[in-house]
């Protein structure tokens, strides 16, 4: 039995997870099959779409007790941006609620009513930006996905966690649907309500397991860091993240990518559709590499074919023409100077001593992570390890390494666990 299987078995026997008492348990030693979770215990709640219904939900959740389970559904791949199209909540004494942020775009009153209440989210960093946009910002949270990582579970999706920890099977067939659809079909609403049905139970079970493993304080520090993190700033030069950009090496070609990307983004935002539905990344790169001189040449490229109207082709051609007409001084540079160390693959040539430090530090962190039964990246981020090894303290000591790690954002529990091993790795490689 693996460590994760032992953890799951322990949770099922100590937290009430697994099948109810009136369900027959196999006596042949085979794994107990999960119980399908088909309906929310109070049924599918009505979707809140107006101010009066929202006020009732706010009052009910303000009067509830204990933590509140929160989830959000977006329309990634269908709509422009990452806005929420459904918000699900559940709290003891309030039951479950489904809120339509299209009809109720300002949920700040609900956010304020839950101030001081612990929010339970699964993969919190995915949902917090879209929740912040509608006025919902937690003051405390418990992330069940991150808790699962720290507890050593190899599969930390919500369905896998509910099954392994609580013994129930969630139907996950609607995770990638277009949540901007109105009205939302009943099967989708059932799926959405079930996503918060057992989050409180999962949180309680994971808290007990983390406490048993001596990792509960680690989790609390991680959760506090998520709450305290400021909103991510807008990405500089987002067009540089076009898929296939590594093929584009000449500055004039980069200008074509930039013009096409920005044109596509304006169109996608105006139409409120995913940019990929307007023009694919592969087509942008093809046009940049080919530098077509007219609409006929452009239409022959992959991605600009028969389904494109003459007007569409002309707007893409205009973007290419703008890039072709730019003076050399206005062409984009090959790339912004990296804010951190260079790619590790180049270290052996640029700084062999740094490469040796990195190899030793990676080995040390990996061994510690295995010993502590958690993913290496959760013990210490790879970026932090690289930065420390590229520019180590002038005098390597526990104090100087601790100071450097804290400056890179490592939490106290991480610093306490890794400092000695990193001091040894850095000292051994000079």
UniProtKB/TrEMBL annotation:
CDD domains: RNaseD_exo (cd06142)
Source organism (scientific name): Streptomyces bambusae
Protein name, as recorded: Ribonuclease D
Any single Pfam family the record assigns to this protein: HRDC
Every HRDC domain range: 250-330
PROSITE patterns to which the protein is assigned, alphabetical: HRDC
Gene3D superfamilies in the record: HRDC domain, Ribonuclease H-like superfamily/Ribonuclease H
InterPro entries tied to this protein: 3'-5'_exonuclease_dom, Exo_C, HRDC-like_sf, HRDC_dom, HRDC_dom_sf, RNase_D-like, RNaseH-like_sf, RNaseH_sf
Xref: PANTHER family: RIBONUCLEASE D
